[in-house]
Amino acid sequence: MAEWTFYAARGIVSYDRLGKAFFDPEQIEEGLIIGLMPQIILTPDAQNPEVIDSLSEYLRSKEINGVPLKITAHGKGQFVDSELPLIEQSIDAIIELNKKRGESLFKEIVFHAGAVHTFEKECNLRAQPEYHGYSNLDATFTLRDYFESLNNIKSVMIKASEYAVESGIDLIIENVGQVNYAVVPSQKAEDKSEDLRKDIRWADTIWLPEALQVGDVGCVNDLDFLTGGKLPICIDIEHLGQSAEYSQDYNLMKYDAGDITEEEQKMLDDFGIFIREGYPVLYENPVDFAEIIRRFEGRIPICHIGGQVDMVYDDEGILKIGSHMPVTFGQDPNEYIEDDGLRLRENAMRQEKLEKYLRALHDAGCRSGVLELYQGPCHVGDKWRFYNELSLKNVKSIIDRF
Predict the structure, then answer these.
(1) Does position 53 have pLDDT exceeding 90, yes or no?
(2) Rounded to whole angstroms, how far apart are CA atoms 391 and 395?
(3) Rounded CA gap, 341 and 104, in Å?
(4) Thinking of the domain 5-399, which architecture would CATH place it in?
(5) Are the CB atoms for 125 and 117 separated by under 8 Å?
């Protein structure tokens, strides 16, 4: 049976005194030391010929190939309002690098699909008087807005995939969480909530409203339609867990939507979700993580792994963000949870959830996992190594029993 390969999400740029980005292998090397291959994060600053060329030469010197890339996406993602030729230009640059090497240095590109709105548009809409009565879980888009975005994204994405696969590169679509709990950089301390200023993991960011509907596509039941029933999928464990957590409260068994129109019923029949402006997105039934994974058996080449138990948790009266938590079990230390009893309970729940999730992924044929952990602004150093080594050991303790 094929063994698993584990990666860490790694950045590749630093900046000179003038603010110009240059290739920096420090994060890659930090991961290699503890046995984690790099999943390269291609931020906009990393997507320039000088940086990519330097990356190629570096990987060749390390005799590393077959590296998965991730094109970062915030808000809408790459496939909404993008023209196919622009996406193909990015793919061309990667094809050219592979040609220079004479082998598949890069073989996979993981994308977020997109959403109906950007964060900026969502926040601007909610500032208008007609939306003041909306909660942060109420959709500011209609069912038709959602379906139009879904179709547009699917069309561009499949064409881009067909273009890439001709040169041996797979475009892999990552599922996203049902709602966005968004963090964005801030230069103003006064913009941060008091709770966030005390959060040692997320204090360098602004935490936007606890939940914000922007109409992400590719969350759960629409993944098969979005990918044309054939494209590979990257299952992000935390995102799917977030959708499942959300669906436990927001479903048609618990939430009265009143009379359902013919158009709304068709969406329920096709995708198991209910969408109406001014209402939360509602699932017909709570999401079953393992059942969703089984649906895509043989189409999940890679997954993303984090230690999230709850998206938001109350730690001695302070609300904290639970995503990208280290994978800690049992008596493991976890400095991000101050309450000792809570830490033990969360460690136990984390182990139980990951055993279920990883078993489902393994049975579905997945054999690659990317650790996506966040310990604050420092992406290298003793703390990064400690929590990534501990997380890798705990994940392997589950995988090795399969």
Answers:
(1) no
(2) 6
(3) 48
(4) Alpha-Beta Barrel (3.20)
(5) yes
